[in-house]
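Help: why these numbers?

___
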Amino acid sequence: MDQTLGLQAGNRKYAIERLRDYVVTSVDAALPSDTPFAHLVLDRVFPDDAYAAMLANMPDAGDYRPMHGRAKGHDLADGTHTRVKIDLFPEYIRHLPPHKRAVWDVVGHALCSVELREAFIRRLGPALMRRFGSGYAKVGMYPIPVLTRDIPGYLITPHTDTKWKGVTVQLYLPRDCADAHVGTIFHERRADGSLAKIKQMRFAPNSGYAFAVGPETWHSADRVGPEVKTRDSILLTYFVDAGLVRYLRNRGKRVGNFLLSELRGVLP
């Protein structure tokens, strides 16, 4: 695959399309695994130069906002948020410096592309069929790409994702393999109801995983230790977008989150 893609090329549309096509090819080449549940093991997700540009243009700490949901329950005693995020939508990244905004604008648009969504649906077809039936390919999926940062103290206990989600993707963004031990853990529920740790993903550069959300997709993350500076990744979640309720909910959440983010920037 072409390694010469430049994120900050003058032709924004061309840059988005080239990055999109590369990531789609990476998804098509991903190794499938059924242990302990069906998932894809992603490698070399982005071109080398694009990955380097992403690492060189990470947002500053003040650009992120707290991550709610399960992560909120693991804040430190002094109130420090152990997981923060910035949604990779234009309305969120518009406050970034121009050179950083240019990079994350291209990444965000590529990750939200129809072609990438179709690639994940195609590769995860059997698992999606078990949940949605033979018409799974026509079920709407609304992409939400979120750049996340975890710091020492962060953890998330074993869980399956909410039924609102259709596909979960996490793309790891470390600079090297020094913290490979902090990757996501996959579990299997045993007959007695206990959860057994079966597999752990390596937190390796330019790698990741994807799975179709189902009742068997138990996963977790051990507490991030003091040896880790930051655990950076992109969470690309495809929310089920079928029916009026889900359609309005997905877009309403985007608007609501944007308003909360803007208020955070003006309130003392």
Notes: Residues 1-5 have pLDDT under 50 and may be disordered.
